[in-house]
Design goal:
The structure is a single chain. 26% of the residues lie in helices and 24% in strands. Helix 2 packs parallel to helix 3, helix 7 crosses helix 8 and helix 7 packs across helix 10. It has three domains: 89 residues, OB fold (Dihydrolipoamide Acetyltransferase, E2P) (Beta Barrel); 61 residues, Irregular (Dihydrolipoamide Transferase), CATH 4.10.320; 218 residues, Chloramphenicol Acetyltransferase, CATH 3.30.559.10. The chain contains ten helices and 16 strands. With 434 residues, the protein is an alpha+beta fold. A hairpin with a 2-residue loop joins strand 12 and strand 13.
Length: 434
Amino acid sequence: MADVVTMPKLGFDMAEGTLVRWVKAEGDPVEKGEVIAEIETDKATVEVESSYQGVMARHLAGEGAELPVNAPIAVVAAEGEELSDEEIDAMVGGTGATKAEKPAPKAEKPAEDDKTPEEKPAPAGEQADEVTPAGGVRSSPLARRMAEDHNIQLSKVDGSGPQGRIVKKDIEAYLESMRAAGREEAAEKVGKALQPLTAFTPGEIPEDEVVAMSRLRQAISRRMQDSNQNFPHFYLTRVYKTGALMQLRKELNQLLPEEDKLSVNDFILKAVALALRQYPNLNASIEDESHLRHHGHVNVGVAVAVEGGLMTVVCKDADQKPLRLIGREVREKAGRARDGKVKPEDIEGSTFSVSNLGMFGIDEFAAIINPPEAGILAVSAVQNVPAVEDGELVIASRMKATLSADHRVTDGAEAAEFMAVLAEYLEEPLRLLV
């Protein structure tokens, strides 16, 4: 029996997505769990896995098509099953989407006789590449966005995709060649979420520059504005003793291979997950005006800096996992996020988030809640600072963390208790191993 594949909903606020590339062509066998397409959302390019097994019978949308969530994009049929256009049309609800649709042309082409010599087609073999809606050569939406971000003319880039289509790796290769040629300004932009100001001569004032916001930055803007305006935030900051944690981390890393070494953030994620298990109001979201949803799973989101913004990858059931597995999962998912190759499960389902800027040497900061969650923990740098211990002034390891909580869901006293329980785990880190 044939099944319809639809545009997946990747995040509660996703309304539409762009079908970047078909991985499975019509007629290809499809196994359950295999990647069949790449979808671009406001956050990233995501690999879509099939929930069905069979044969890719029909593409219902062409590459580059922007489609709403739950719109049909393909039909997977059983092996040997033959489907007519009428049967496929009936399956997708009478939409008539029985074949991949091509993007509509922007305007009517002028008649051949009306063209000037400059406008007439080039001889065979010299024709220009197909023009996209973005006005450039044939390219994927992600490649066009990267080109815009780096001020690259697509006509200068060689495409390696089907029919010379320019894809993400082609833009990356072009930027790499610019770096090798000594174009430092372009090279410095590669893979950097934060870009320094360009140098200028004292006394010279640069002109204003209007820069288009990427889809990711627009999505962050909408969500953070909504959260800051509609979620009544309150903040609690606590200083944590981290001497024992740093010593335990050092000892454990001496026993672990390089690829499995633990970061401070791995300990924090585990501690947060265990503390959340004791305070369900912080592992919750607003269901409606009169109900809360206490989530059974403790899925901790981790803010990751990517090109052009931030993305939250999710460590699911973090309270159930050992530190080594938490570290491995977060590294793998963060790597896919930075490469623009996240899977849907990498970014879905977080119930609480952690934002760690300790690696940047930040002393203290507060984060905005990631809707629809009830809280986020902002973690600062672990530092050696003057402290009083047993009545004596000593140099000790300390770390500040600030909880941002939704006052509709919890109150100051409960949030303070959560921060105290978190201290028990961080200051006696052997608790995280048992």
